[in-house]
Amino acid sequence: MTEKIIQDIKKFNRFYTRHMGLFNIYTDESPYSATEALILFEISNKKDCTAAYLSNYFLLDKSYISRILKHFERDGLIAKKLSELDRRIQHIELTDIGEEALKTLADKASNTVQSMIDKISEEEIEIVVESMKKIEEILYSKTQ
Amino acid sequence: MTEKIIQDIKKFNRFYTRHMGLFNIYTDESPYSATEALILFEISNKKDCTAAYLSNYFLLDKSYISRILKHFERDGLIAKKLSELDRRIQHIELTDIGEEALKTLADKASNTVQSMIDKISEEEIEIVVESMKKIEEILYSKTQ
DNA sequence: TTAGAAAGTGGCTTTAGTCAACTATTATTT
DNA sequence: AAATAATAGTTGACTAAAGCCACTTTCTAA
């Protein structure tokens, strides 16, 4: 496995980190940070979501997650429900308000992607998307 | 251009953001943050680098860049030189110490990539790298 | 039954980054 | 030529994001 491959991957990492950063700029008049948006998204998609799961999934300190969830609860975006099987555990679900908030964030993210690919031909977009799928498919299978 | 393409790109963005986050964990006993490392890297590669350039390039507040560069100067990693053509401008260069520090960070990043692709076959790695190149090639040409 | 671990919380600290005002210099406008 | 505006960079103050530590409650393992 050559050093060149490692350099190529690092180059892409730098490029993509910056690329995503450039396009975050258009979405930051949101009341929620990128981290919070991702957490809301994950709650929305994860069956039986818990704070511990989110902390592990995002590699964030559990007390930070706890605080974020408290804000979400205060804002009415989520509801917590004590597990009957293990009363340490709270199950977290998005409320209707939370679904709404997430939809707003998702729409903004869609607009961001839209502007990211504005001047690219359908053909090239197809290549980008297929390439992304290949990367995710291969890398994902090795981290689960 | 379909909504599905936008969803696919967003999915990849979420995946790759987290993927890079997972692999940062192995490099964080560094005295420099990821941002600082990227700045050092850019100084190393950019001819006639200036603070204003770095602020624009990374979309970071100029006062934050100023402080980071001050730390780098204090640590002996960079040298600043007033431009003779425009005495507002300072040219920034890496010192030998800075090259050394960057090398250390680069080696750590290489180890991170190494562990990222540890269990992937040469064939699949080839696909990943080629896919990354395609993405960068297409997206890059539209943001410069 | 006791000790250890897990889940979550709150106080506090650290880190990352922003905002505003400033100085010095150059460019533009009058 | 002088006045005004803009740029490059700095500093102080501040906010936001995130981490650390100690705690309580609950469950698991010994």
Automatic annotation (TrEMBL), chains A, B:
Molecular function terms, GO-annotated: DNA binding; DNA-binding transcription factor activity
The entry's keywords: DNA-binding, Transcription, Transcription regulation
Keyword rRNA processing among record annotations: no
Gene source species: Viridibacillus arvi
UniProt-listed Pfam families: MarR_2
Lineage, opening ranks: Bacteria, Bacillati, Bacillota, Bacilli, Bacillales
Ranges for domain HTH marR-type: 2-137
Protein name: HTH marR-type domain-containing protein
InterPro entries for the chain: HTH_MarR-typ (IPR000835), WH-like_DNA-bd_sf (IPR036388), WH_DNA-bd_sf (IPR036390)
